[in-house]
Every structure is written in C-alpha cells, then in structure tokens.
Amino acid sequence: xxxxxxxxxxxxxxxxxxxxxxxxxxxxxxxxxxxxxxxxxxxxxxxxxxxxxxxxxxxxxxxxxxxxxxxxxxxxxxxxxxxxxxxxxxxxxxxxxxxxxxxxxxxxxxxxxxxxxxxxxxxxxxxxxxxxxxxxxxxxxxxxxxxxxxxxxxxxxxxxxxxxxxxxxxxxxxxxxxxxxxxxxxxxxxxxxxxxxxxxxxxxxxxxxxxxxxxxxxxxxxxxxxxxxxxxxxxxxxxxxxxxxxxxxxxxxxxxxxxxxxxxxxxxxxxxxxxxxxxxxxxxxxxx
Length: 288
Fold this sequence. Notes:
The protein has 10 helices and 11 strands. The strands form 3 sheets. A 7-stranded parallel sheet has the order 5-2-6-1-7-8-11, sandwiched between helices. A two-stranded antiparallel ribbon has the order 3-4. Strands 9-10 form a two-stranded antiparallel ribbon. The model has no long low-confidence stretch (mean pLDDT 83). By secondary structure, it is of the alpha/beta class.
C-alpha cells in the first residue's frame, strides 16, 4: 500500500510554477476584456481556400458602414492576411499599460493579427520546437490566441469578428468557443463546389455539437460578375441553398467572383459603398 501511495504521489500534478493560477488569471482577463464587446462572431468553414478572410473584411466594412464599432481578430497565425486586405500591412501593435492597442483601419475597424508581430514578407518555415519560429502548432496556437484575447485592449465594440484559419473543423472552434464568454455564433463560408459543401456540412454539424449557434451560410465565389455589364453568371446547380435548407440555416449571401474585389483586397483599399459587391455585403450585414 505504501508503494502505491508513493507512485500516486509521483503521478500527482504539482503546480509549483503557478501555471494553473496564471491560466485562470489570464481567462479572467479575457472575460474582462470581452465584456466590453456586445457581439462575438466566428467566421469559419473547415475548408481552406473559400475566402473566409475576404468575407470577414467585407462583412466588417458593411457593419461599420451601418454605424457599428467593429473589430477583427485574425486567428490565422500561420497565414495572416486581414491587415493587408484592409491596408494595414505596415502597422504594428502599440503596447501601453492598458494592454496592446490594435491598429485602426478603414471606418475605424480595429484589427489584431500575428502579421503585426512579423516582418512583412518573412517566410513561413518550421525551425524546430525549441527555436523562435513563425509557424505555430497545436497548443502553441491555442496559447497565442489566448494571449491575444487577454492582452488586446479592444475598448467598446459592437461586433468582434474572429477570422478562423483554414481547416478549423477540429481544434480551433472548441478552443476559441471555450475562451469567449457569450459567443453569439458563427458565420459559415463555402463555395459552389460539392467537395467544399461536404466539408462545410461536417463543420456545421461539429460546431452545433459544441453548442455554437450557426447564424448563416455565405456562398462565396458564387458565379462571376461581368466587369462590363455587371450581370452575374451563376454556376449550374444550387448546392449552397440545398445545404442551407437541409441544415435549417439561412443562406445569407451569394458573393460572386469580382475583379474589382480582388484588386481591392490586394491593394487594401475598400470598394466604395455603392459598388454591387459592397451592397451584397450590406444586405448580409442587415440580416445578421
């Protein structure tokens, strides 16, 4: 019996470094920071390459045009691109006694991103677990996201959008959902591809199993808008509408491929409010 007690004592976790207390304190800071944010919304897909960051930035612009105070947490640590899409590629976080101040972009949109901590154009490469590296894996990602949430001084916001990384059907939704008090729900992004829709369906089911409410589905790259006449040609079939009906979620918007939007995202200069694509996102924002 004494040998068993000795073995159990060795297996017992002793928090000599106070890690557990640090984690609890950090989570309390997250709760305090986000208490000043009215709505917290995830933008996810589970499928890479569907344009989540583009949807996030354009939705943020639409909400800001409606008079909302908006922020974006770019949670894609390995491929952050929200800053460039909003013309903030050369900005940095400003560190104050109150916390890290996120740069403000067009229409006052506040952005936190790993891009603000890396040199622009720095190659993403894995140097090894003990080396300083811009590649983040597993628990490292969770820790960095937790740091962002606890240290960023967002101030008063009406909406905070979380742009999740590609393939976020596994660990990111539960990690972030567990960190965010009073999460409003998630917007799901797909494209008109049966392959993408299959993955998105799994993501929706998975998110619901985690208790995340699905606010709506966006079909991105939904056909092509002609730059000359302005008409949109949609691909055959209507998979996103069928999926939305099957899952009982609203299809909030169908966003076409548009050369103006592509140039806008590359240059970091928002499309004018009267542009057809901007109006589609305004309609989407009103539904939310």
